[in-house]
Design a protein that fits this description.
This protein is mainly alpha-helical. The protein has 6 helices and 4 strands. The protein binds a DNA duplex (13 and 13 nucleotides) through α2, α3, β2 and α4.
Amino acid sequence: MNFRQRVYALVRLIPSGRVLAYGDVATALGSPRAARQVGYALAALGDDTVPWHRVVRKSGHIAHGGEPGRAPLQRVLLEAEGVVFDAGHVDMARHRWQPEAGDVAGV
DNA sequence: GGTTTGACCATAA
DNA sequence: CTTATGGCCAAAC
């Protein structure tokens, strides 16, 4: 399976109110240094069947996409799920989700 | 095949 | 706090 498809599959498993860093997704897929590919995969994402807004930077800050208006939208979607924003960034220590072994195996 | 690119990350100043 | 630099891996050309 392509790397991008694996990214989509894993992101779909993120529960509501939880977030993951690009690097965390890459690590869960077995390539800890492929954080850029995760963002690349989400950028090429056409369908909205994937909760892409639950993926942020490791700092908890929202990534600067080339598409204008995407960042504010992402924040709104996260806050709607109960994610707490502190000084413009997500509290990662509080909302970071850790994928379980069974979840990644199913992909 | 080589080269470019990018919703990243870590480090340093 | 900001800016700069290098590395990284997969996809696209």
